[in-house]
């Protein structure tokens, strides 16, 4: 049974027309890849169009989320922990000779922006902390790292206005907090620390 009319040879596109259409499609796909896909997926913006359209920021957020998910998978602690202080059993004895100091630090985060502050602590050293948020809520990740230890998680939380507690260093290294502003307005975080650490600074 024949339901459609066979096209005449003169109605079919020529080889040159097919080549031209394929070339145009390839150019369009390349332009979309460079101007849209790379900025929005990988925060790579060779043309500047992604930054103008806000796509680069979207890519940065995706990369950060992927990094956080990888950290969750590595530690097996993907679920949020409500408490702000956790210590390993071997880290309960603070060093008597650790320096005692206190600081108050403030930082302002734009919507979607993240920041990280870490203190240099010896294994078993203790640090009392209190941080609060003005203007909104943040997600946080209290963690540590050291040479040979990429990530050690203490606690996590979402949509939080503040936390307080005692951080006991599980090992010699950098211990602190990462915050990300998930609200639509800027927020200001005030961090107060008091305890045994030799240095504290913003690292991200």
UniProtKB/TrEMBL annotation:
Keywords: Membrane, Transmembrane, Transmembrane helix. This is Transmembrane anchor protein. Residues 80-97 have a biased composition (Low complexity). Residues 80-102 are annotated as: Disordered. The chain crosses the membrane at residues 21-38.
